[in-house]
Design a protein that fits this description.
The chain has six helices and three strands; from the N terminus they run ααβααββαα. By secondary structure, the chain is mainly alpha-helical. It has a three-stranded antiparallel beta sheet with strand order 1-3-2. A hairpin with a 7-residue loop joins β2 and β3. The longest helix has 22 residues. The radius of gyration is 16 Å and the shape is globular.
């Protein structure tokens, strides 16, 4: 896969990249771990391990809430933001290589089909709706 090759050059998986991208969208705010897991494109069976790897690379920080020790908030670091900025153009080029042959109407149809296929699997209020 083109993405796997691109992300592996930066010691990332596609799922880790997606988590970073979601955290960048929330920055400077943070997300609870379970909220982040629910927003990932593909299910993360072990979100803790995924975040451990990102934390080891100083790409995310985690903070346990004082008022509820079960809740862990996750945020992206400056290093994580810098890595995503570095990856923005290569990811765009990768997507262009994958889907650039499709017309605008075909891309819209693809998005509509993907949204429709995911909808029955989403909880009410999901950001994917």
């Amino acid at each position: 896969m083109l993405e796997d090759k691109l992300f592996s050059q930066h010691e990332l998986t596609a799922q880790q990249y997606n988590a970073l991208r979601l955290l960048r969208a929330e920055h400077p705010a943070t997300l609870p771990t379970l909220a982040l897991a629910s927003r990932l494109v593909s299910h993360a069976p072990d979100i803790t391990r995924l975040l451990d790897r990102l934390a080891e690379q100083d790409l995310v920080v985690r903070e346990r809430m004082a008022d509820n020790r079960r809740v862990v908030q996750v945020g992206i670091t400056e290093a994580g933001l810098a890595l995503l900025k570095q990856l923005d153009d290569p990811v765009r080029q990768c997507h262009q290589g994958q889907l650039g042959h499709l017309s605008g109407a075909q891309l819209k149809s693809l998005v509509d089909l993907l949204r429709a296929s995911r909808e029955p699997h989403e909880e009410a209020g999901s950001p994917w709706h």
